[in-house]
Structures are given as structure tokens and as C-alpha cells.
Amino acid sequence: MANPIVKLEDVRKTYPQGDHEAHALRGVTLEVSPGEFTALCGPSGSGKTTVLNLIGALDAPTSGRVVVNGRDLSGMDRAAQAAMRLFHIGFIFQAYNLIPVLSACENAEFVLMLRGMPQEERRRRVRAIMEEVGMGDLLDRRPDQLSGGQQQRVAIARAVVAEPALVLADEPTANVDSQTADSLLDLMERLNRERGATFVFSTHDPRVMQRARRVVTLRDGQVVDDRSRSDQP
Fold first, then answer.
1. Vertex 225, ends 224 and 229: CA angle to 5°?
2. How far is CA 182 from the centre of its chain?
3. What is the pLDDT of residues 62-106, one digit of tens each?
């Protein structure tokens, strides 16, 4: 059996809130294997976005261990965590997080540019992935010239073009209509199947939960249910 690509061990996260502490996570233990297509669900405040932020080294746990690709994030300094994000993790954000002054092509190639890839090679890879996500004819459009669904396609291209082992998606269908959401999920399922990337979603969307092959439910900062598709009634 393959080693988990993500491992959380008794992870707790608290935030100061006035004269007391707010408990975002209360002892979460979770493993994700390579190639999974997994959804974290639960009501607002359940801790699912906090889990994603910890896996993505965007935040640090108050206690417990977060291990990604065999490396303990808590043992890394900020530079090493940034390198982990750059070389091993792709992010898809609810708000797209595209750079307004860059074209769709330039946004998609931004990670490759940060990696130092030569321009000719990164343009070749970006054009190929933009064709794959249905954006090959819109390479020169800026984000304000694209629909929400088109912007999210660019964000997906940016997340997967560098071929990360792990893609973290925070409510990726929240700001698009149903037809676009289904199209984006088709795309991410295909990228998962054909490229082998592991996807972990934070979501409220029943469509994402129906597509996920594993659904982990959080409530009040704890895992209360964990079902694979074969376990569904």
C-alpha cells in the first residue's frame, strides 16, 4: 500500500478571540492516499478550510503533526514551506486569485516562471494545458475579460500545469452556475484520472460530494464521518 501523501496526526488549531481561544480544530487525524479525489465537507466553522490551509502550509497547527509528501511541515522554516508549496502543491481558490494585469496565459504560467523554467518550455506546457481546459482561444484575455467559469478554468490550469502531486481546492464551484460547475468537475476528474494528481476539496456543494470518491465530514473541528464511495448506502 502506498504511503499517504497527506497525514494529519491529532492536529489542533486555536485562535485568540478576545479574552479566550477559539478552537478551529480539535484533534483531527486523517490520511489521504496518492490519487484520491476527496471532499472535506461540513457546515461553516466546521474546520474544513483550516485543514486545507494546514495541508498547504499556509498556516501552522497549534499542536499535532501535518506531513505532506513524507515531510513534516512543522519542521520546516518559511523558505522550505514556500518551496513545498511551489514544487509539490497546486491551489485552486474560491475567489480564483488571478493577477488582474496578466493575461490568462501569463497567469497560468506564473508558477512555472517562479520555478525558473525557460520561457519557451513554459509557454509550450501552458498552451497544452489551456487547450485541455478549453481556454486555448482565450490566452490573451485578462481576468476582467473572462467569465467566472473561464477564470476558474485558468486557475485550474495554473494549479495543475506544474504537475504537483497534490491539488487543494477551496470551494472551487462556489462562484459559478450549475452547468459550469459540472463542467469544471468533469475537468478535474479527468485530470485526476489521467495525470494522477491527488485532489482534496473543501466544499458545501452537493455536486462535489457526489463526484468525490471519498467524503470526510467535519463538525466543530472534528472528523465525524469518513466514507469512501464503496461505503455509501
1. 170
2. 17
3. 999 999 999 999 888 989 999 999 999 999 888 888 999 999 999
Number of independent structural domains in the chain = 1
Contact 70, 84 (CB under 8 A): no
Domain that holds residue 53: 6-99+163-231
DSSP 129-163: HHHHTT-TT-TT--GGGS-HHHHHHHHHHHHHTT-
Phi, psi of 6 (to 5 degrees): -130, 135
CA distance 1 to 172: 30
Compute the distance between CA of residue 229 and CA of residue 99 in angstroms, rounded to an integer.
37
Distance CA 195, CA 100 (A): 29
Residues in the chain, total: 233
Tell me, yes or no, if the pTM score tops 0.70: yes
Would residue 107 count as lying in a domain? no
* Residue 61 forms part of a structural domain: yes
